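=== RUN LOG ===
request id: a7f3
mode: sequence -> structure
chains: 1
length: 385
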Amino acid sequence: MVKTPEELGAWLRLALTPGIGPDAARRLLAAFGKPEAIFEQTEAALRHMVSAPQAQALLEAPQGWQALSDETWLWLQASPEPAIARALVTLGDPDYPAALLEIPDPPLMLYALGQIAALRQLDMGRCVAMVGSRNPTPQGLINAREFARSLAASGLTITSGLALGIDGAAHEGALLGAAVGAAGTTLPTIAVVGTGLDRVYPRQHRDLAHQIAQRGVILSEYPLGTPPLAPNFPRRNRLISGLSQATLVVEAALLSGSLITAKQALEQGRDVMAIPGSIHATQSKGCHLLIKQGAKLVESAQDVLEELQWPEPLALVPRALSPTASDLPEDELLTALGHDPVSLDALQARCGLPTAQLQAQLLELELLGQVGRLPGGLFQRLGSA
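=== RESULT ===
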């Protein structure tokens, strides 16, 4: 982590120098060590590593660099509360996530907010990215929240992008699951954002972002003050997938950022999974395309755990967090299901539960592998459960 204003200033100057992209910056760091040493070189020495225009650019301080350096140093020192840390983690730092060193273009710096000490122990093998539509179906929101809840309760870390829709539901589910889940979960969720960390985008997720910072980590490669610019979001997706062993697409249209994330995951050598949906829903088309192209079809949290070879997956999948007054006991709901396929309306007539509550309980039984969802909106008990 950056320790002094001088060190911070050197890193920011390298990142902000016009014409110096990530590749050139990494070459310079490999040749000269720390950024401070780069700016001590002569133009002739720099030309051995970069082009003449790049060498000349390195000799001049970028416009606005000093003001941003001062602002960032103040931000680093002014954590909103003791339990939430702020840091600038640089390439080669022990706290830099090791998984990102395996992707083709790791960021030079990561601005971090939250439980930063846990980054050093972050294991890619226990991280699952969950992405999907910003305009999901009601079932898609339930799927994202419940899958994330079950996976986090099993000890996995959920990475996503803090966007509206599936991303937000995945973060919420992970925080819920970690509250009742397997011991030893150091980070229930990581949010990788496309703005500076001095702002929350979208604003509707301000409270959620605070909850993530209290128990997880928010990361960005963008300097303070960076607004929500459209090109930044597809680029940040490579970090969501890069941190994770697998990317699970919950819902996605054919032209969506979620499919970009899935493509990046494949290019990074990561696993891709997708949840199927209705053939009539636009939000399912992207998932169906991924499955046709070889993505793992996922119907339950157990499928994800087995794909990751997580130990004793069925035993790790949690039961409901806490039944509400209107919940039926699990065995009574299974009895109401019977052994033949049944529609939601027919099942509701049998048990008298409100629609939303019944859907939530059915999804929980799906995640436990006790109920299957059939074409035509039908449900059926599986095995002798």
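=== NOTES ===
The CA atoms of residues 217 and 257 lie 22 Å apart.
The two ends are 51 Å apart (CA to CA).
=== END ===
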